[in-house]
Amino acid sequence: MSDLLDFSANINPDGPPPAVLSTLRASLDDISTLTDYPDLQHTELKHAIARYTGVSTQNIAVANGFVPLLEAALRTLPIPNCLLPVPAFIEYRNALTRAQIEISPYPLSTKFCFNYDPRAMVIGQHDAILLANPQNPSGVCHDGRTIRDLIARAADRNMYVLLDEAFIDYVPEHSLTTAADQFPNLIVFRSVTKFHGIPGLRVAYAVSNPTLSSSLEENIPPWPITTLASRAVSAALDDQGYAVRSRAINIERRNLLQHELEILGLAIYPSSANFVLFQLPSEINPIVFWQRMIVDHHIVLRACANYETLPAGHFRVAVRTTEENKKLVAAVSRSLLPY
């Protein structure tokens, strides 16, 4: 099924920065890349992350993906009970369950565009809050001031905040990454590979105060990042022009895609990420619609039926190239028609 057009994965459709490929080629020409162990301290990678985010290398812990970092945090912190706003990325609940942490679901309302309420979210017996900004699957992004307010209120109640900013590169002005030193209860998780189009390299990082960051690293197995991945990601992060262009073109493509999907009568949520969540009209069977998109149009969507508390008929689509987005809109239009 290589002819399928995949709108289910939220990866930069324009591919990685050119320096990534040239760095990988140069690294493979150096035999020591393969014969030497990777840098146990991740010095080059941490300095690249520090330049990119504006934090100190002492605030940074790295691993081969978000889940290993989250699991390290759950091993490090005393968290018997965690508040989990839902719908949310499925791996949040999976990681909390594996860590045998009691989960307090916090349902978010589609009517109010999945709005976070800092006052309400700190009321209860939970010891931590695990949330995302921008959210997944909605793409809704809260103003940085709202998230800061939530973190401050949680700190007053001795609650930890585990903040997933996997898609914040599209709206960096709302990031709380640089606030890690101000809030000892905060860990910010960041992804490198989605925004930079290199998910095969598996690199993510967490930012927190130096003491907490050091404890996180003690709970991560040694050598989680290969030399190839470290060098390639460092090259990607240093290409600021790529980041600026990616943000600008994503806004243009996303706005057009949202507009065209709304014209078709779909309910759309205000995304700030590189994907869009929509809901079908109630008279459309979501299973039949999803199957028609694959069989008739060779397009794969992310069906959201397994997202907690999300009403039926929701689908998430990545923002791909302009031409690919046009194919998606045309296919959705035809799939909404009765047989």
Automatic annotation (TrEMBL):
EC primary class: transferase
GO MF assignments: lyase activity; pyridoxal phosphate binding; transaminase activity
UniProt keyword Ubl conjugation, yes or no: no
Required cofactor names: pyridoxal 5'-phosphate
Record Pfam families: Aminotran_1_2
Keywords on record: Aminotransferase, Lyase, Pyridoxal phosphate, Transferase
InterPro entries: Aminotransferase_I/II_large, NHTrfase_class1_PyrdxlP-BS, PyrdxlP-dep_Trfase, PyrdxlP-dep_Trfase_major, PyrdxlP-dep_Trfase_small
Residue ranges occupied by any Aminotransferase class I/classII large domain in the UniProt entry: 3-331
Keyword Phosphoprotein set for record: no
EC number: 2.6.1.-
Gene3D superfamilies named among the record's database cross-references: Aspartate Aminotransferase, domain 1, Type I PLP-dependent aspartate aminotransferase-like (Major domain)
Family: Belongs to the class-I pyridoxal-phosphate-dependent aminotransferase family.
Name of protein: Aminotransferase
Source organism of this protein record: Granulicella arctica
